[in-house]
Design brief:
The complex is a heterodimer of chains A (264) and B (365). By secondary structure, chain A is mainly alpha-helical. Chain A has helices at residues 14-38, 45-51, 55-94, 100-112, 120-133, 148-172, 174-179, 184-215, 225-228, 233-239, 241-251; strands at 8-10, 230-232, 258-259. Chain A has 11 helices and 3 strands. In chain A, helix 3 crosses helix 4 and helix 3 packs across helix 6 (148-172). Classes of the chains: A mainly alpha (264), B mainly alpha (365). The interface between A and B is large, with 46 and 46 residues.
């Protein structure tokens, strides 16, 4: 134990990791069952739809998987709300609020400081990164927990799923909505939005997310953090220096963010 | 004459063999081709018209072929109609050159078996003349379809469905064998079976994708449609239909979503004659007239509340324009939302792509 073995940092919770697995699977199913319909004139669409048992079955699978995606989103919402409440309680216990205004201010501060919430520092990180790319600076950006890239990927899905959940039913039950008085143009718009958002999400995931998570020279062949939840110390220093500093100074060697070696 | 060993002339033997073969052939030949048209051709028109070369070049310079392929004709729906049932103006053999075209609405002396009345396509023909496609068969207006344009004879020889193998042009023997067990006249059973089987598919024996292809054969031709005076919106009828789920599902293998005639010819009560009554939207009796079209979506087998397509459609669903051109500012909301997404997709993609490139460059140098 005398030699400094590289520490391992615990970064992604089990909830988050399972949510990622679910979104991986449902997103893939949705793309595979939905795109043949969107691009129905193209050569690959027919064999792909046959793989799922024909248009009718592909549609069934698409809708059921969509329900799972909706369930996932509900879970994510609940998870975020509960963790936020927990953080608020911690803050309020340390420093009880004097009045309602003070309480609200504290809560807003907690929300603003949620790891996934975009902040002013992200803007600074982007500018720093651009300076670094154009050789104007030698220092890569000093990113904290959840770099702006991770926030972008997360929030893109966080907005994307509600878009699909809201537009999907219009396409699933057009007669139901028409009967209750929804103007037909809304159904057409739902089609455009659903279809185009799917393509946008697919492009961003395929190009951006896959590069950052799989094909980037630093991470290739695969960034295991999303499965194991942990990240090595050297990786932490290289990619998230601000977070590393914060953990080491605030929590110390035996803080909760560091995976402790097993007792022998 | 030389006499062989037994004193019988070989010429006599040869002569007998030839006679026997001729007689056998005479009696057997009608049965060699099951689908011969000899049953319908009582007046032996085929004596001349079976020859491949029988043809002439008319005054306009067109080659007119008058050969009738016996087997193909026998397999067609008209296979049991005598020649003069349709070609009514022939009075002598050899007959004069026919100037009048066949009138498909003629009464053809074939008795419709359930009533015993002479059969005729006249009700269909009346609907057709009233419709937007209707034109005088003797002098058709250019661009308008005559009966033979849609109801091509070769199509009659193919029946759609499991019982008939199109490539072989004959019903599968195992199926017919069940009929023949009791109905021993094979030709009768064959004809009856094909007559019924190809009508068992909903509305028409032509598959829905083929219906779309048939209508598109003219309606996709914008020059022709413009010449016939169709409004601008109708010129895009086919391309906008192809943007809908109805078409895309058909293209990908589904067989039960809406094709052209499902909406454009929905009348109550349903009758196949109505398929020929396609009227323009402004006609108060048209299926797609705003006063009538509310009933189209909820027709049997479609959005009628009995299947997975959801609850029965009320009249409002028909207000959803099936021919929405998403690429045109005529539908501004759909168009501009689409444009917004287009620019957002490209913008985000380019930005991120450039970012990745910059990052990679910095990493390498």
């Amino acid at each position: 134990m005398a030699e400094a073995q590289e520490r391992t940092f615990y970064r992604i919770t089990l909830h988050q990791r399972i949510q990622h697995v679910v979104i991986m699977i449902t997103f893939s199913i949705q793309v595979l069952t939905g795109f043949p319909l969107k691009f129905s004139g193209v050569a690959w669409s027919y064999p792909l739809i046959k793989l799922f048992g024909g248009v009718y079955m592909a549609g069934r699978i698409h809708r059921i998987s969509g329900l799972f995606m909706g369930g996932l989103f509900a879970w994510v919402l609940v998870y975020i709300i509960i963790t936020t409440i927990q953080k608020c309680l911690v803050v309020l216990k340390e420093q009880p609020a004097e009045n309602l205004n003070d309480a609200l201010t504290k809560i807003i501060k907690v929300v603003y400081n949620l790891p996934v919430f975009p902040r002013a520092k992200d803007g600074k990180d982007i500018v720093d990164a651009l300076k670094y790319f154009f050789f104007l600076s030698d220092k890569p950006p000093d990113t904290d927990k959840f770099s702006w890239k991770e926030k972008f990927d997360y929030l893109a899905v966080f907005w994307g799923i509600p878009v699909f959940i809201l537009t999907g039913p219009f396409l699933w039950f057009p007669s139901l909505f028409a009967n209750v008085g929804v103007p037909p143009v809304a159904i057409n718009v739902a089609l455009v939005v659903h279809s185009d958002e799917a393509f946008l999400a697919f492009t961003v995931i395929m190009v951006w997310h896959f590069y950052n998570a799989i094909f980037s020279p630093e991470k290739f062949p695969f960034d295991g953090m999303v499965i194991t939840g942990t990240i090595s110390e050297s990786h932490m220093i290289h990619e998230y220096p601000a977070e590393y500093r914060r953990i080491m100074t605030e929590e110390g060697e035996h803080g909760p963010s560091i995976v402790q070696p097993e007792e022998e | 004459m030389s006499k062989g060993k037994r004193g019988v002339s070989c010429y006599r033997n040869g002569f007998l063999v030839i006679i026997i073969f001729l007689l056998a052939g005479f009696f057997v030949s009608p049965y060699l081709s099951v689908n011969s048209a000899w049953g319908a051709d009582e007046e032996n028109c085929l004596m001349c018209h079976k020859h491949r070369g029988i043809a002439r070049i008319d005054l306009k310079g067109n080659l007119r072929i008058f050969n009738v392929n016996e087997d193909l004709f026998a397999l067609s729906v008209h296979g049991r109609v005598p020649c003069r049932g349709c070609h009514v103006n022939i009075t002598e053999i050899p007959h004069k050159i026919q100037v009048k075209k066949v009138d498909c609405g003629t009464q053809c002396h074939k008795k419709e078996p359930s009533t015993g009345i002479d059969f005729s396509h006249r009700p269909v023909y009346t609907n057709y003349r009233r419709s937007v496609h209707g034109t005088d068969l003797q002098n058709p207006a250019p661009g308008k379809p005559v009966c033979k344009y849609c109801h091509q004879n070769p199509l009659y020889t193919r029946t759609y469905g499991k019982g008939v193998d199109v490539a072989r042009e004959k019903p599968i023997a195992r199926i017919l064998a069940r009929c023949n067990a009791c109905h021993t006249n094979e030709e009768w059973a064959n004809t009856f079976y094909m007559h019924v089987e190809h009508r068992l598919m909903k509305r028409t024996f032509r598959g829905r994708l083929k219906v779309v292809a048939l209508c598109s054969s003219c309606h996709e031709n914008k020059t022709l449609m413009r010449k016939l005076g169709l409004p601008e919106k109708s010129l895009k009828a086919v391309e906008t239909y192809k943007m809908t789920y109805h078409y895309k599902a058909l293209a990908l293998g589904r067989t039960d979503t809406a094709d052209c005639i499902d909406c454009h010819t929905y009348y109550e009560p349903y009758s196949p004659h109505n398929v020929h009554l396609i009227l323009r939207e402004s006609d108060p009796e048209s299926a797609i007239n705003p006063d009538n079209k509310g009933k189209i979506c909820a027709q049997e087998g479609c959005h009628d509340g009995t299947n997975a397509s959801g609850p029965a459609a009320g009249p409002e669903l028909a207000n959803l324009d099936m021919h929405t051109d998403f690429e045109s500012p005529d539908h501004p909301i759909e168009f501009w939302v689409g444009q917004g997404f287009f620019f957002m997709t490209w913008g985000v993609f380019l930005l991120l792509f450039i970012w990745m490139f910059l990052e990679l460059m910095r990493r390498l140098f």
